[in-house]
Amino acid sequence: MKQLPKSPPPSDAEARRAVEPVVCYGTDALPAPDMALYEEARRGMVKSSQVTIPPRDARCFEVPAGHFFRIVSIEGPQVGDLNLWNLTDLSERFYSGKTRALHATHVSTGDRLWSSFPYLRPMASITRDTLDWYGWDEFGGGVHDVIGTRCDPYTNALLSGGEYHHCCHSNLTRALAAARGLTLGQAEAHIHDVLNVFMCTGFTHDTHQYFMKASPVRPGDYLEFFAEIDLLGALSTCPGGDCGASHSGDAARCYPLLVEIYQPQPGALAAWHPPAKNGYSGSHGV
Fold first, then answer.
1. Max CA distance (Å), the chain
2. Whole-prediction pTM
3. pLDDT of 114 above 70
4. How far is CA 276 from CA 54, 80, 120, 129, in A?
5. Residue ranges of E strands in the chain
6. Is the CB of residue 259 less than 8 Å from the CB of residue 53?
């Protein structure tokens, strides 16, 4: 629990609190996705492959630049933890913190997933979200967050004293190691903070602690992306299931998730080009 304040408020405390907030990064200058082009490219697209992610496990998948991919609920309410990398360079990976700073704590249609420094470019753009109707609930909760880091065995050991090997961090580690022929240690170094797909989260009004609640996702719901660069993805089906009660353990009922890859018709993206790497010189003033 948060401790009660011990410092007395100054005489101008309310005036200090009343200062108007300023959005850190105005989105007016942010390169926007061409949603009209993506919508046109979606017409006539054909599913080229799919990968089923078993409960409490993870799998990797590849998406060529200019293709679409969907994460689909197929059997029951299930949350997924998503990692993304540049297919040919694992050092370029999804940067959840910068995505959060540029967009919001939760993402939906029209938002983009940005890559790490020094690349900082769009990796994927969200083109469809069947849960966009949810918005914000009375608790301050929303869907598809870039707040939470992923459930992991280290925090679990810290809080419970036990070992659990199907946390999303471990699931993603095993999946990347298998897909790339890496040792677990080598793979773990590439696992990063996630997009919590379908997860319903927020911060409590009183203590501002990160909370989760049962996801509103149902079979048939999906989150769809356009791959801006060649992608390697890894998706873990969280052991928390719909994350309505437990977070790490075997108590929750869990379901598989489906990843579908779609290819647009030839010529549908003739006017599109993958985004260039960030234009900063890298000199850092030296």
1. 68
2. 0.96
3. yes
4. 35, 29, 9, 26
5. 46-53, 58-63, 68-73, 80-86, 89-93, 112-114, 122-129, 142-145, 195-203, 210-213, 222-227, 231-237, 257-263
6. yes
Handedness of CA 203, 204, 207, 209 (dihedral sign): negative
Question: Alpha helix locations (H) across 181-266?
Answer: 184-188
What single DSSP character describes residue 173? H
What values do phi and psi take at 77, rounded to 5? -65, 120
Q: Per DSSP, what are the bridge partners of residue 143?
A: 200
- Helix 168-180 to helix 153-160 angle (10° resolution) is 150
Q: How far is CA 252 from CA 214, 239, 280, in A?
A: 11, 7, 46
pLDDT at 145 over 80: yes
Of 111, 100, 105, 120, nearest to 25 by C-alpha is 100
Of 97, 56, 82, 96, the residue nearest 247 (C-alpha):
56
CA–centroid distance for 283 within its chain: 31
Residue-wise pLDDT for 171-219, tens only, equals 999 999 999 999 999 999 999 999 999 999 999 999 999 999 999 999 9
Instruction: For residue range 52-91, list pLDDT tens digits in order.
Output: 999 999 999 999 999 999 999 999 999 999 999 999 999 9
Res. 1 pLDDT band, cuts 50 70 90: low
One-letter amino acid of 260: E
Distance CA(151)–CA(157), nearest Å, equals 11
**Closest residue by Cα to residue 128 from 281, 282, 262:** 262
Q: In the predicted model, what is the mean pLDDT of the chain?
A: 96
Query: What phi and psi, each to the nearest 5 degrees, are found at residue 142?
Result: -145, 175
